[in-house]
Amino acid sequence: MVVIMSFLIVETRTTTKINHISLIIYMSNYIYSLNKTFIQIDDPDPRASTPGTRKSEDRPSTFRAPTPAKLKRSRSASNNSKYIIKTTPEDKKQLDLKVARFFYGHNISFRAAQGKHFKNLCCELRPGYSPPSREAIGGVLLDQVYNEVREELKNNLINEEPVIITQDGWSSVHNDPIIAHCLFSANRSYLHSLQNTRKAKKTAEFCFDLIQDVIEEVTNQYERKVFAVCTDNENKVCKMRYLVRRQYPEMVTYGCAAHIMNLLEKDVGDSQIMKHVVELNKYFRNVHKAHGYLRDHGGVLPQLPNDTRWTSQVKCLESYTSNCHHYLAIRNEMIANNDDDMPITISRIIDNIAIQREASRLLDLLRKFANALDVLQSDSCTLADGVHVWLQLLHDPELDNHHASIKRKFLQWVEPFMVVSYISSPKYKVL
After folding, report:
1. What would you measure as the largest C-alpha separation in the chain, in angstroms?
2. Band of the pLDDT at 118, cuts 50, 70, 90?
3. Which of 94, 169, 305, 336 could bridge across to 179 with cysteines, CB 3.0–4.6 Å?
4. Once rounded to an integer, what is the mean pLDDT over residues 17-29?
5. What confidence tens digit (pLDDT) does each residue in 278-331 have?
6. Nearest Cα to 370, choosing from 317, 298, 300?
7. Who contacts 248 (Cβ-Cβ below 8 Å, separation ≥6)?
């Protein structure tokens, strides 16, 4: 250190530039910091003052560098901060909202928040973070997310096109009557409300009161114009649409094309052939022994028609045609094993070649309605597309036997403005 300082002093005497003086001060501070950090001077030996020992000033000073362990600790202490994740109260609030939205968006039971595996996952993803409790997800967080979603809906509708309101009703898994309202605007749909009507009777007047509240809310709170109302095609709902037109003459009302197409498919598929197919599929689906035979033969799971699942008749016939040869092989195997557990009615259906042939023809027929239904329930379907789909079915020669049913359902659905939309559409070039 003395040598370096002497060199700098000589340099300073030979040149009088001010930057050399600054350099001397900088180097002095730097060398002092090095001595303080990396070099440690031992304290004088306490025995130096005792007689017969060397004095401390006669003994040269000893220097000791820090050990690797101390140096490692000193460096890690200064670098640990960038590896530590701190969860502030504001961070926890935002994380709780994201966790709650995950539960709501994927319909996950709130009880899962108490599971140890879920808590361990959150701890691994962000150490020190405690996820919200089941009570918080079902209480204060639910209210907060609900308010945020309502505000998002309002903001999204500010610059959107006029709104179409849809109303539909069903029974929940607990057999509670539910009526839902959705808003559709600019090719986007928004769930507005779900209401448990409980003991109230679902009359046309009751449904009208519900949708009138939605119309007033969209008009006043969201400041958007309601252009149309779309519902299913039940008789009381058709009467409700008449009440809407009488109260709001400028508003367009119409029934759901996909819903009425599903009703048409059910009418066409309601035949004796379908009943035989359902009886056979139900036997191999519900009877344990027959179901085990079918799995051993590599068959597919038999499907049954369901009123709440569209195109389920097609799925039923498809599973029957796929399992037909398995059914026959199982019946022959049971006969060879002297196993008479199969009912005689099931054996007769399996042996009836006419049922297989007619089921195949019915499947080809119902696929036409299923394909039309897929087009009508797609997000990109327009009114012109809907009219075009119905006209294709009316002019299909393979559907001549069902022409009257198709025409009746089409006239039940179509409105004059739909025909205008189809005629003026550049996609179909009718004019």
Report:
1. 130
2. very high
3. 169
4. 58
5. 999 999 999 999 999 999 999 999 999 987 788 899 999 999 999 999 999 999
6. 317
7. 215, 226
Q: Is the pLDDT of residue 174 over 70?
A: yes
What does the pLDDT average to over 388-399? 94
Among 237, 232, 235, residue whose Cα is nearest residue 258: 232
The tokens for 336 are 């060879």
The Cα 405–Cα 290 span in angstroms is 38
- 327 C-beta neighbours (distance < 10 Å), count: 27
Amino acid at 218: V
What b-and-e string marks burial along 329-357, b requiring 16 or more CB atoms within 10 Å of the CB?
bbbeebeeeeeeebeeebeebbeeeebbe
Distance CA 74, CA 68 (A): 10
What residues does 226 pair with on adjacent strands? 163
Helices and strands (DSSP H and E) totals, the chain: 18, 7
Q: Which residue has the higher pLDDT, 21 or 46?
A: 21
* Host H or E run for residue 183: strand 177-185
- Nearest Cα to Cα of residue 207 among 171, 167, 248, 175: 167
Determine the average pLDDT of the residues in 159-165: 81
Token reading at 333: 């195997």
The predicted pLDDT at position 86 comes to 81
Is the model's pLDDT at 50 over the cut of 50? no
Tokens of 276: 């035989």
For residue 121, the SS3 value is: helix
pLDDT of residue 43: 46
Q: Within 10 Å of residue 298's Cβ, how many Cβ atoms?
A: 8
Residues facing 179 on adjacent strands: 169, 195
> In the block, which residue shows the tokens 């045609």?
321
Angstrom distance (rounded) from CA 314 to CA 360: 11
In order, the DSSP letters of 35-49 are: HHHH-EEPPPPGGGG
Distance CA 217, CA 226 (A): 10
